[in-house]
Amino acid sequence: MSRRDGSPAGTLTGSGRTGEILAAATELFNDKGFHSTTIDDVGAAVGLTGPALYRYFRGKSELLVAIFDSTMDYLLGSADPLQLADAAGEDALDTLIHLHIDYVLAHRSLMRIVRREVHSLPPEARERFRANQRRYLEAWAGTLRRVRADLDRDHAMAMVAGAVALANRYARRDNEIEGSELKAMMMAMVQAALLAPLPALALDRPETES
To answer: Which tens digits make up the pLDDT trace of 114-161?
Structure first.
């Protein structure tokens, strides 16, 4: 089984039967919405009855949590400072950009769900997701500051938040261009956003704790 976005079932969200179930749930939540999808819908998509599906997941909410958690597990792993420590600042930043864009373009249904269904998460899972999002942006900001000595932490965080949001937006929508041309454009736009000079107003701002 493969996802409609072209990535194989189980990629980054589990393996074997668990991965198939998560892949099917991802497509259904994207197509119908979380609240309009039933556990029987998910079971039917993978050839299981609703009760049989409970051997893997206790319900829809657990499926949604697993989708969000696996997304952040991958992204945080790709931004692990130890993985990038030996690379020059520019190379580490390019690696982060490449990995993020490759991921969001390969998992477009998932990225739409992350945008649309975050408020459907149970409160504890939603708080964990928000905290992990911030950790991810902090990893980007730290890498960016290895390249740009002119940035304090606040400016770096603002710039990477905007750049990541830009990439995610293009991954979620249907675009006039696709494939390698879209990826190249996204790379150029994210790099330009991160390397843009600070406006004079920002340069006059009092320094904050680094």
So the answer is: 999 999 999 999 999 999 999 999 999 999 999 999 999 999 999 999
pTM check: above 0.90: no
Of 58, 85, 111, which closes a domain?
A: 58
Domain of residue 32: give its range: 14-58
- Which whole-number Å values give the CA distances from 17 to 20, 41, 53, 174, in the listed order? 5, 16, 10, 30
| CA dist., res. 46 & res. 48, Å (int) | 6
Dihedral of CA 7/13/14/19: which sign?
negative
Question: In this structure, which amino acid lies at residue 96?
Answer: L
Q: How far apart are the first and last CA of the chain?
A: 47
**Domains in the chain: how many in total?**
2
